[in-house]
Amino acid sequence: MKPTDAAILSEVVLSVDSLSTEFTVEDGVVRVVDKVSFELTAGATLGIVGESGCGKSVTALSIMGLLPKPAGRVVEGRVLLNGLDLLLLPKQALQQIRGRRVSMIFQEPMTALNPVQPIGRQLIETLRLHGDVGDRRAARSRGVELLAEVGIPAPDSRLDDYPHQLSGGMRQRVLIAIALACRPDVLIADEPTTALDVTIQAQILALIARLQRERGMSVIFITHDLGVIAEIADQVVVMYAGRVVETAGVAALFANPRHPYTRGLIASMPQLQHVPKSRLPTIAGMVPALSALPQGCRFSNRCGHATAVCSTEPPLDRADMAHGVACHHWRELGA
Amino acid sequence: MTVPLLEVRGLTKHFPVRGGVLLRRIGDVHAVDAVSFSVRRGETLGVVGESGCGKSTVGKTLLRLLEPSAGSIFFEGRDITHLGPAELRALRRQMQIVFQDPFESLNARHSVGRILEEPFVIHRMGTALERRRWVDELLERVGLSSEAAERYPHEFSGGQRQRIGIARAIALRPKLIVCDEAVSALDVSIQAQVLNLLLDLQRDMNLALIFIAHDLAVVKHMSDRIAVMYLGQIVEYASAADIYSRPRHPYTRALLSAIPVPDPIDREARRRARIVLEGDVPSPIDPPSGCRFHPRCVHARPDCATRVPMLEAVPVDAAADGAPDTFAAVACHYWQDISSSIP
Question: Model ipTM?
């Protein structure tokens, strides 16, 4: 690798610094995201993984300024896009950033698409909204190009289709085309393949990887599926009950997971190499409600290694330069 | 050879498609087409495939929650395909089903105790006191405390609700349970708990399971034998131990190679070797001629579009590894050529 390449690779595009988000619910206020920090470098894929309620999707919505109002709000932290704090931007300026610089795709493309508009119109609207193309004809031909780029066959005739006329996989392709219409620097993908069949998931993951390579785009990929993380991520952030519990390069995370939660999560996955009908290691109990979290380490009530010290909050220690772990006992647990 | 617990021959389920102002029948969804298999006591048959392959329809048809269009279902050697309502009710003591969404299948207005007591009441079993004791035993058996009986389904998490669903399914000590995507909605750490529970119950009660899911890793983990379905048909039948190391049908190969593996070290090699299927699954209303997989198959030859491949037993010497009851079958004209051309 030439030094210039290394410089480009390590350039931080998006930096999330101590981000906390709260929601007002029936019985008070819950902190759904608590002091989450990570960095996304140019051209890289950062995977955020965790189970239901870990705060991974709310982290994404906080970055995008798309929290449901008035229930949700960011209460502290910074989100720096090339040094510019998105949390301080006025609404209009943020809208310009969304789509042009940072785009997002979701799990269920049917709800993200307008069901009563042809997909072409929705695609072209995005292009025109951000002022990238002038007249209608130019916009239409750009729309066809984009659909072709995301692998939709016969894109010219597909432009007039409605969302319900497309399969789940095709709808996700359309959503990706819309998200990428204005060539954003960062794509945030929130469980984009979770609702798809596994062979269609493989198509979409390959598509995202190809577009990322061609455009030098950075990607934040949010999923509950450690298998998907292993396939596509360069860096991984593991979240549990609103906090980052571990962060590492993808190879290190799977070869040498440090946090008891990460270890438990990896071990409890059924894998093709396993002997059929063997018992799976499990994590005892279940994720606590956000209104009833244990003091200190939020995993402590399910953790076999927990001691008295775990009732204090563990800092995110550096196991090495690129490997962070928030556990009081990670040293004793060994590699 | 003993009689299998369940035997299915030529099971077919078509749903009419209606159209026009008079809602005339304009076609059929070929949800399940001439599917045959058997399940032995205490074993698990896994059924895997993607959306629209007919796997859930198979499960519902077995329990006669859907009426089969053709074919026969035998339970302990007895033809149950056309049983009347009273006989069917008696049969349900032997065969149960657990669905994906436990919330949907539990009556939200009844306490868990009442939900679990109901099967005993329907079958006029025990006194109120006895039934109460049985409910406590059931809750303990699935890892819930007896206080749960006083509470309502919405007070429980997804994993706990699925435990309640399982408790109800085992209440009458059935011989067979169909699990239809029973763990698909659960987080992985909770999924592992429920999978272990099912394995324990199977061992303790000599339960047969038909484990239907879209996730091949989960199906493989739970099964003795696996049927792979595509567009309403079984395309491959193999032992769970065998299917990963030795897939035979091109669809099974593609399905296996599409599964994300939680091991980043070899991902570049996997990417290169990956068989990414083109396009979507075709419509089951008008399935492709010949082999239904041929439009997406990289190995398809001209006659695959015209000749329908039968599910044929794999010759014994080509089957695996000395296990005497290994049974494998594949529905592909060219599986031997494909297997010899790919390591």
Answer: 0.89
A195 inside 8 A of chain B by CB: no
Angle (nearest 5°) at CA B323 between B320 and B329? 50
Residues of chain A in contact with residue B259, where contact means CB-CB under 8 angstroms, are: 198, 227, 272
> B61 to chain A, minimum CA–CA distance in Å?
23
Number of other CB atoms surrounding residue A147 within 10 Å: 24
The answer as to whether B237 is a domain residue is no
Say if residue A70 is preceded by a cis peptide, omega within 30 of 0. yes
Is B169 a member of any domain?
A: yes
> A187, A217, A99, A200: which is closest to A151 by C-alpha?
A200
Q: pLDDT tens digits, residue range B303-327?
A: 999 999 999 998 765 545 555 456 7
- Higher pLDDT, residue B2 or B180: B180
Other Cβ atoms closer than 10 A to B3: 14
In a domain, B282, yes or no: yes
Question: What is the least distance, in Å, from the CA of A150 to any CA of chain B?
Answer: 13
CB contact under 8 A, A198 and B51: no
Q: Which amino acid is at A68?
A: P
State whether B156 and B252 are in the same domain. no
Could you tell me if B167 and B273 lie in one domain?
no
pLDDT for the residue A7? 44
Q: Which of B251, B263, B275 to mutate to test the interface with A (most CBs of A within 10 A)?
A: B263
Helices H, strands E: what count in chain A? 13, 12
pLDDT of residue A6: 45
Domain tally, chain B: 2
DSSP symbol at A294: P
Q: Are B178 and B317 in a shared domain?
A: no
Domain of B16 in residue numbering reads as 1-223
CATH code for the domain of B125: 3.40.50.300
Query: Does B154 lie in the same domain as B255?
Result: no
> Which residue in A has a C-alpha nearest to residue B251's C-alpha?
A199
Is residue B248 domain-shared with residue B125, that is, in the same domain?
no
pLDDT digits (tens, 9 = 90+) for A279-330: 999 999 888 888 889 999 999 999 999 999 999 999 999 988 899 999 999 9
**Residue B290: is its pLDDT beyond 60?**
yes
A278, A226 Cβ separation under 8 angstroms = no
Find the mean pLDDT for residues A148-154. 87
Contacting residues of A for B280, CB less than 8 Å apart = 167, 169-170, 200
Query: What is the tens place of the pLDDT at every residue in A230-283?
Result: 999 999 999 999 999 999 999 999 999 999 999 999 999 999 888 899 999 999
Task: Please name which of A263, A260, A254, A271 lies closest in space to residue A299, comparing C-alpha atoms.
Answer: A260
- B205 and B250 both lie in a single domain: no
The whole-number pLDDT of residue A1 equals 38
Same domain for B333 and B294, yes or no, is: yes
Nearest to A203 among B189, B264, B276 (CB): B276
- For B111-135, what is the mean pLDDT? 94
Domain boundary among B154, B189, B223: B223
Residues B208 and B288 in one domain: no
Q: Is residue B233 part of a domain?
A: no
